[in-house]
Design brief:
- The chain is α+β, with helices and mostly antiparallel strands.
- It has one domain: Winged helix-like DNA-binding domain superfamily/Winged helix DNA-binding domain (Arc Repressor Mutant, subunit A, Orthogonal Bundle), CATH 1.10.10.10.
- Helix content is 50%, strand content 14%.
- It contains 7 helices and 5 strands, in the order αααααββββαβα.
- The strands form 2 sheets. Strands 4-3-5 form a 3-stranded mixed β-sheet. The protein has a two-stranded antiparallel ribbon with strand order 1-2.
- Helix 4 packs across helix 5.
- It is globular.
Length: 167
């Protein structure tokens, strides 16, 4: 597997989860925003997840963790904040959320989503941004929101598909 892609997929490691939470806390402090307990737990759950999570999956996970019922707006408010701050991205085609690997960047995010295992990887591409801006300008179009999601099969699943079945 490509080293850059492997690095993008490594966010599930415990040290990466801790680093992601610290970075989010630092970003919020710099912006004079509060990282509440609910926001922290939602982000932590997403950082630990091995694939995008839907809001109700997060809700159930937090309820189990806390040992009490929560209302859906609790999770939705936390997700709204995290998305607004660039700490989390929404995968529109899956109605699910993933931690963002580029919280302080305005470049479009490209999501590669595996149809087999659900894995998602996020990359930024300045050349793609320039191409999109050029094409938009030629149409007299102002780009507001950018969502680029590519679905297919990840390297691990492709490898599994090409291995001969054991006899």
């Amino acid at each position: 597997m490509d080293a850059m892609l492997q690095d993008k997929l490594s966010c599930r490691r415990p040290q990466a989860v801790t680093a992601g939470l610290r970075a989010a806390e630092t970003l919020c402090r710099q912006r004079r925003l509060q990282m509440t307990k609910n926001r922290w737990m939602v982000l932590e759950s997403l950082l630990e997840a091995d694939q995008p999570m839907r809001a109700y999956e997060l809700l159930r996970q937090l309820e189990m963790r806390l040992g009490r019922r929560l209302s859906p707006p609790t999770v939705y408010r936390a997700l709204d904040f995290l998305v607004e701050q660039g700490l989390v991205s929404r995968i529109a085609t899956k109605s699910a959320f993933v931690p963002s690997t580029h919280a302080d960047s305005d470049l479009p995010r490209v999501f590669f989503i595996c149809d087999s295992c659900g894995l998602s990887a996020e990359l930024e591409n300045a050349k793609l941004e320039a191409l999109l801006e050029r094409d938009a300008a030629s149409l007299g179009f102002h780009i507001g929101r950018r969502v680029i999601e590519l679905q297919g099969t990840c390297a691990s699943c492709l490898e599994l598909e090409t291995k001969p079945a054991a006899s």
